[in-house]
Design brief:
This protein has about 550 residues and is mainly alpha-helical. The chain is built from 24 helices and 5 strands. Helix 22 runs antiparallel to helix 23. It is elongated. The termini are far apart.
């Protein structure tokens, strides 16, 4: 007997093999001896070699040794061992032909069996997938994994027409809201889900991507990913949850947008919120939700703020959604998001910890075309001003910049003009915009005619009315002049005049305030020449 090798395979088993028997089949046996550490003392008649990470472990090495000792005749390659033997042959560098060309080659023997994989029983193919998981990355570099995926897709297509098994995404108690309704057709197409949920997150990601590359239905792959999460996420550790979610997000990012529901994405977001996902995965998830923001609901957007922020809801997250949505906006979808954003603003406006700058970002996140009417936005700002009563007029004016006064209804414009919580400048702008709007209406209603009688004197009383009004500014002295009484309005526009009279009192009050302010300023200038004293109140 030549040099005897004592081979320790991953600590699972020790084998004594003749180097001269292995050498004709294992091309790198000499390098194996030279490079592996010698564990036994030099005086020992054999050398001990440790093999770490051997594909298939001690069981596979025993089959390789049997192949070498019997010249291939004593080894039967089957579906159960083909994957492990193919990777073991690669590990031991057995791809080259032996010295005697009449002897079989292990690589060719395993390749022949693997070529028949599409015709293997389904369970054998599933076992092969599990083998690839244990043998990775050799299973990928040798092409075994690619063969397994091809067999999977072939089996899915063939058995999809057979009687469905009990495996179905609807059978799990832990549901994601993205699930579609169960039907006989969907069960025939998803019968294989149950057999693959045992895979690791990394292998699920590889299998799903490989199926997509081979033309698998995106909707079915999406359902499998959510079914995998339903079955595995409950009871998993934080690290395992993180790995599963990151794998799911990576796969979903490659799917067609229509194959994944917005509710399903928010389901992932809810689970991922307390976890620290990789930055790229978090950004990808936010971007996918943003692209489908028009399918979201108010409950979806009410994500609790991270602990320690003091806020009720995560406003920054919603702003990121809107930014992603605006990158590929479409007019019909924009209106839906505008209505959704108004509802969200109504929910967050009463939050005392919502800073004005952040509120302005929310109010102006969408372009003017997103709202046909700004009534809802005005009401939200009104609530915000009531909760944040210490805001200065300058801060309030910055917030009011989000309002397009021309898109306010007459009722809201009237309310704003009499709303003491809004700055005076905002009230003037609202009245001026309504004046411009009224001029346009009158311009299309016909030519102006002189009044048949002089306008009645203004009584200063507040007329409660629910119709339109109009004001005009005199360029000479800045006074607001009523002119609607000079117009011969049709019956259709009579309501404009009534509301005009109702709003006139607010304009007069503003003029009085300005007059008092001028008087106060005059007194202040005079007081500088006298003894120092406290400043007078600007307004009563």
């Amino acid at each position: 007997m030549g040099c005897v090798l004592e081979v320790d395979v991953d600590g699972e088993g020790v084998f004594f093999a003749d180097k001269d028997v292995l050498a004709p089949f294992i091309g790198e046996i000499k390098e194996l001896i030279d490079e592996r550490p010698v564990i036994a003392p030099v005086r020992t008649p054999h050398r001990r070699v440790a093999l770490h990470g051997f594909p298939g472990g001690a069981e596979a090495f025993e089959l390789v040794a049997r192949f070498c000792y019997t010249g291939g005749s004593g080894l039967v390659v089957t579906a159960a061992n083909a994957c492990a033997l193919r990777c073991a042959a690669q590990f031991m560098d057995m791809a080259d032909a032996p010295a005697s060309s009449t002897k079989p080659i292990l690589v060719k023997m395993t390749e022949k069996v693997l070529d028949e994989m599409p015709h293997w029983p389904w369970q054998a193919v599933v076992d092969a997938v599990k083998d690839c998981q244990r043998l990775f990355p050799l299973s990928e570099s040798t092409g075994v994994f690619d063969r397994v995926v091809g067999a999977l897709l072939s089996q899915m297509a063939v058995q999809g027409d057979a009687t469905p098994t009990s495996s179905s995404p609807e059978s799990s108690a832990f549901r994601f809201s993205c699930d579609t309704k169960c039907s006989s057709l969907s069960m025939r197409r998803t019968w294989w889900f149950e057999d693959l949920v045992v895979l690791s997150p990394g292998m699920v990601e590889r299998v799903a991507k490989a199926l997509l590359a081979r033309g698998a239905d995106h909707g079915i792959v999406a359902r499998f990913i959510f079914y995998y999460l339903k079955c595995r996420i409950a009871g998993a550790s934080a690290d395992d949850k993180k790995a599963m979610l990151e794998a799911a997000i990576t796969v979903i990012a490659d799917l067609e947008r229509s194959s994944v529901s917005c509710k399903g994405l928010f389901g992932i977001l809810r689970i991922a919120s307390p976890l620290k996902l990789a930055g790229t995965c978090q950004d990808t998830l936010v971007d996918m939700i943003g692209r489908k923001l028009d399918h979201a609901t108010l409950d979806n957007l009410l994500v609790p703020a991270p602990s320690g922020t003091g806020s009720l809801y995560d406003v920054s997250l919603v702003l990121r959604f809107s930014e992603a949505f605006m990158r590929q906006v479409e007019p019909p979808r924009l209106k839906k998001v505008g209505a959704l954003m108004d509802m969200y603003l109504a929910e967050v406006a009463p939050d005392p910890s919502l800073r004005p700058a952040r509120f302005v970002e929310l109010a102006t996140a969408l372009p003017a075309a997103a709202r046909d009417s700004h009534d809802a936005l005005y009401r939200v700002i009104d609530v915000y001003f009531q909760v944040h009563s210490r805001l200065t007029d300058d801060e309030k004016m910055k917030i009011c910049k989000g309002i397009n006064y021309e898109k306010l209804s007459p009722e809201c414009c009237k309310h704003l003009a009499t709303n003491a919580g809004f700055p005076t400048r905002a009230a003037v702008q609202a009245l001026a915009s309504q004046h411009t709007l009224l001029k346009g209406i009158i311009r299309h209603s016909g030519p102006l005619k002189p009044a048949s009688s002089p306008p009645p004197p203004f009584t200063g009383k507040h007329h409660h009315s629910e119709s339109y009004s109009d004001i005009d500014g005199d360029d000479g002295n800045g006074q607001v002049v009523l002119y609607a009484s000079r117009l011969d309005l049709s019956l259709e526009n009579q309501n404009l005049k009534s509301l005009l009279n109702g709003m006139h009192w607010r304009v007069m009050e503003l003029e009085k305030v300005c007059s008092r302010m001028k008087m106060q300023m005059t007194k202040m200038k005079a007081s500088r020449r006298g003894a120092a004293r406290s400043l007078p109140r600007m307004c009563s």
